[in-house]
Give the backbone structure.
Amino acid sequence: MALLTPEDLENLLDKLEYNEKVIKKVTGFEIKQICEETYGTFPDSEVVGIVPVTSGNGIIDNFTASLAAIVNHFGLKGFVTEHTDISGYNEAVSRRADIIMMADDHIFIAHNLKNGKISTNHECTGIIYSEIAARYLHADSTDILVIGLGRVGYAGASHLAKKGFNVYACDPNIEFLEKAVKELGVKPYERNSGKKFSMIMEATPCKDTISEGMVSDRCLVSTPGIPCGLPENIGKKYKVDMVMEPLVIGVASMLYSVF
Ligand code: NAD
Ligand code: 2YH
């Protein structure tokens, strides 16, 4: 599994500001509004305790500090515990956190201690990026392509299928593709089919996953994938709008899902 790097976390709020503008332009909504409507929730002055976790590859420089900045950006009070791991968890509860956020190398969770709701970053990231793609104002049909059916992409495809979209998907992992066909009713996307999309959600850890044959003119690519799957020349040639941001949008989605 790909871990975030300290470089991914540089200038997060600048990247957010750019993406806020793109999201408003392509959907007509702000991220907060999309989260509110997706989960039917609103913030209520929750306090968020963020616990650094040392297991596995250990602390990622700036990860918990970035989470605190994101929490504050969305109008909540966030603090990073002085202690790590179990001691940090105990400290967060003692300091009256309503929501605990913490991540190891495999999973990143938000747990609301007041209402018992728990969310994962991979599922909430899939939901919010697919929801952004689904709201594209200039979509030419309800056909949408999901590239990558791992943890994030599967959650996105599932969200879109539940919303009634006509979901096409591809993944070199045949088991993942067959599972999505069987459980979600997605259609396998054939690269040589000539079918192009005005809405694409990309969720892979690979470059250049988006090829010229997939994109229609002025399509929207909504992608949490790191690195970017859209080659620059294709983006320019087809005047693609792209939503791509390494952490904040997914974290906003996690918070709203547990309010
Ligand atoms: P994952 O490893 O569970 O799934 C990735 C999937 O992509 C795999 O099933 C793989 O077979 C597939 N894939 C690889 N190459 C492909 C190709 N050319 N075409 C189609 N599918 C291909 O990973 P994940 O947890 O789902 O995360 C996906 C990406 O999203 C990673 O880069 C991760 O770092 C990133 N991520 C970003 C955020 C964010 O907030 N921006 C949050 C979570 C994850
Ligand atoms: O980046 C990660 C993993 N890829 C899980 C995220 C799921 N999308 N984890 C962050 C690890 C943070 C570290 N333990 C810390 O600084 O607390």
Remarks:
- Residues 1-4, 52-53, 59-60, 63-64, 103-105, 108, 121-122 surround N~5~-D-ornithyl-L-ornithine (ligand 2) (CB under 6 Å).
